[in-house]
Amino acid sequence: GCELTETFTLNEPPEMRLTPGYVTDTCGQGVGAATVQVSFGTPPYSYLWKPDNVQTATYYGLTEGSYEVVVTDANGCKDSVITQVMDDLPYPFAAFDYRIEGEHVLDQVVQFVNNSVGTIQWQWNFGDGESSNERDPRHTYQDAGDYLVQLLGSNGYCDDTVYQYVNIDPLLAIYIPNAFTPGTSEGTQDGNNDYFYPQGEGFEEDSYDMFIFDRWGKIVWQTGRFGQKWDGRHMTSLELVPAGTYVYQITFREFADLDRHVYNGVVHVLRQ
Length: 272
Prior knowledge:
Layout: E1 17-23, E2 32-39, E3 46-50, E4 58-62, E5 65-72, E6 78-85, E7 96-101, E8 109-114, E9 121-125, E10 131-132, E11 138-139, E12 145-154, E13 159-168, E14 173-175, E15 179-180, E16 199-201, E17 203-213, E18 219-223, E19 244-254, E20 260-269
């Protein structure tokens, strides 16, 4: 029989080469993208991004992270690569502390300490209608109370907000009279300056004590209740004490202060 011999050359296309690329995200806003460029293999190519099954060469709307794509060419050859999307501007973090400066309440100034990270702009709202855009502002409150302070920190593209209460204790103020006229007997009070008692604010009323001493140092009257008035009587005999000079001692604590304030002085009992 007859024989025919031919030679065939089979060329295998070069193996696919995948080159990943990315577009950066900005402070977690989801504006990043992952892409892949294919070299060699046999086009056309199909793409499958995991885990969301996106089937394009570029995967948009991404935040910082790792994204894998599987590429298949026309001959069914497959390869995969992981693309790392970066964030060129991390999300800002707003935080602050504060301390109250000044020995006396009238001189108290609140120093705010900005602990924010990744911020270049700040907006403070102090809770009393006042504001500032300084990094570490100082602020004086005109009244006692609890103020909700807001700090908004920005990196120029996005921002973060934090809130914290600032407590301003009441102004310590006390007025103690130096004389009163309780009358000479039952029914002789005229309703004018009949009692001895201090007035004030800015201290813990539960910590209040007042003692009245005669000139020999003996206690003639005492109370642990703020607002209770001395009517000029002895606390045990209930008799009116003689006219004269008596010594008082008043003690109490300010709010959030463990130290006791002590006021010593004299009060004159006058008989009309």
